[in-house]
Design brief:
The protein is of the alpha+beta class. 27% of the residues lie in helices and 24% in strands. The chain contains four helices and seven strands. It has helices spanning 86-100, 130-145, 163-175, 182-189, and strands spanning 7-16, 33-36, 42-45, 47-55, 60-65, 107-114, 122-125. Helix 2 crosses helix 4. The radius of gyration is 18 Å and the shape is globular. The relative contact order is 0.14.
Length: 191
């Protein structure tokens, strides 16, 4: 049904920054992709894009397969404080890889694809905005540099908690272990 929407599956497992990345697709690269942050800073990104479709207008759709349900993904929330950065990063990576391979292109959609029983074939898109992505990553790196993010950004909540309950609990937990930068926490929490 998805391919009937005017898109054609183009590539699977587009790798970058990995020694085994030199594939036959003409896009994968053993070299990492450079991602711009704020203030001219950059990071090198390595990874593998699960699926790339080409739309009728020549733009591309980037999909990351997920085996579980779509319960934790919030469409329309952008990067959701950095928790949904992967699709945006992969969109930026594909555009860089296309340019590198001599065939510049634009990603018009990027997101998560849940093909299994739990996900029921849902596709959830995340905004593809290089400036927003760079800013969210910069904020996370700022918190880490200040010693306020020395653990993975993972939230575990009770089933009856709201998003606000989780954010409140996280702030209290961080505050109990040292100083808290309220503006940094608000940015990461997406508040």
């Amino acid at each position: 049904e998805h391919c009937g929407e005017g898109v054609t599956p183009r590539w699977f497992e587009v790798s970058f920054g990995r020694k085994d990345a030199a594939g036959t697709d003409g896009v994968s690269s053993a070299e990492p992709v450079e991602i711009a942050l704020r203030g001219g800073e950059r990071i090198l990104l390595r990874g593998s894009i699960d699926r790339v479709d080409e739309a009728a207008d020549g733009s591309f759709h980037v999909w990351d397969y997920k085996t579980g349900s779509a319960a934790g993904i919030q469409e329309g929330r952008g990067l959701h404080g950095g928790r949904q950065a992967q699709p945006a990063l992969y969109a930026m990576a594909l555009e860089a890889l296309l340019t590198r391979s001599g065939r510049p292109g634009r990603v018009s959609r990027s997101g998560y694809f849940f093909p299994g029983r739990k996900g029921e074939g849902q596709r959830m898109t995340v905004s593809v905005d290089a400036a927003e992505t760079g800013e969210a990553l910069s904020q996370l790196f700022d918190l880490a540099a200040a010693g306020q993010l020395d653990m993975p950004v993972i939230g575990v909540a009770r089933s009856n908690w709201t998003r606000e309950d989780l954010v409140s609990r996280a702030r209290a937990s961080i505050g109990g272990n040292g100083a808290v930068d309220p503006s940094g926490c608000a940015r990461v929490a997406g508040a």
